[in-house]
Amino acid sequence: TTLFENDTIKMWYGGVGSDMKARICYAFSLDGINWTKHNSPVIDLGIAGEWDSGWLDTPEIVKDNTGYKMYYYGDTIQQFAAISSAIGVATSNDGINWYKHPNNPIFTKGNVGEWDGSWVESTNVNFDTVTGEYKMWYNGVDTTTWKINIGLATSTDGVNWSKYVNNPVVQTGNWGEYDDMWLGTPTVLKMDNFYEMWYSATSTNSYNYVTASFDTVSICYATSIDGINWLKHSNNPLFHTFTAPYDSLVDRGGPWAPSVIFNPNTNSFMMWFEAHGGNSNFNISLATAPKTNTNIVEYHSMESDIIVYPNPFSETTTLEIINWKNQNYELKIYDLFGREERTHKIINQKTEILKSDLSSGIHFYQLKDNKQNISSGKLIIQ
Known about the structure:
Layout: E1 2-5, E2 8-16, E3 22-29, E4 35-37, E5 55-64, E6 67-75, H1 81-84, E7 86-92, E8 99-100, E9 107-108, E10 119-127, E11 134-141, E12 148-155, E13 161-163, E14 182-191, E15 194-202, E16 207-208, E17 213-214, E18 218-224, E19 230-232, E20 239-240, E21 252-263, E22 268-276, E23 283-290, H2 294-303, E24 306-309, E25 316-321, E26 329-334, E27 340-346, E28 350-354, E29 361-368, E30 373-381
Antiparallel strand pairs: 1-2, 2-3, 3-4, 5-6, 6-7, 7-8, 7-9, 10-11, 11-12, 12-13, 14-15, 15-18, 16-17, 18-19, 18-20, 21-22, 22-23, 24-25, 25-28, 26-27, 26-29, 29-30
């Protein structure tokens, strides 16, 4: 994970030593290309018998009103997540000297049979300085299909977490699509009141039975207005393993686990991601992209297919689908915490929505056809 602070780019990453165990390491850079490594790991393995004594990985850093918080993956047996996969948290004032929370692990996998019942990993955490709420997006793997999806959890203190009841919030695509198998390792930025997510994805079409791995890994993009209802970009994937320039000694197995910052000095996004050259030469690579309004415009264009009037409203409002197609639509309404409050079956171009049992304040709606989320927006009740 990376942070941009005072013209310095700071990176925390999992590094594997000669004992073949991973620990959390730190490096810093002024340009994102030339890096200076800290002389030793900043978080070490737990002692024998502790929950994180086998492997540490996928650190995520968030800065709140008290300093730095790091969320990290840990398990008791090296890279055997199905046994003890969990997430811990540590705190620091300087990003180098860390103190593990006494109640670790603070986030654990679901029950057998649930979508995240095999393991949880690769968190991305945002802290809202206005509301004081923490949002965590994370990888979850089930016990049946072994597919990776992305879920959401929220917290008021960064330690005690509540999983969103309708997880996962970003799901693998249909069979044969670019993201039909693994979809995870999210990195999320909130800019201009929109959430932007980049994530890695794989398809069953690219699985190599000889190497027991995926030949092609893709970087994809999605947007959301609430962090719950996500719209995948129509041009996904943005790039993939074999996107030029391709080097087999560097780019295999990636791009995996992106970490994105926005650099205001260059008005551009910078993305670091994992890849490797085979059995060795594991590395971190860089990609850049200019800031444009293309993606936000796309999201707005989807929302502009819907007109809600009046909005705000006190008793009733009307939802109108501009580009009406004679097909079945489903409208779901959620509260601020992402809890589903109501479902409407939309069979006409115009639908009246009654306040009824909805409380005053901000609510979110999501309109779907039989294939995907086609529009999301806010309902404001006076």
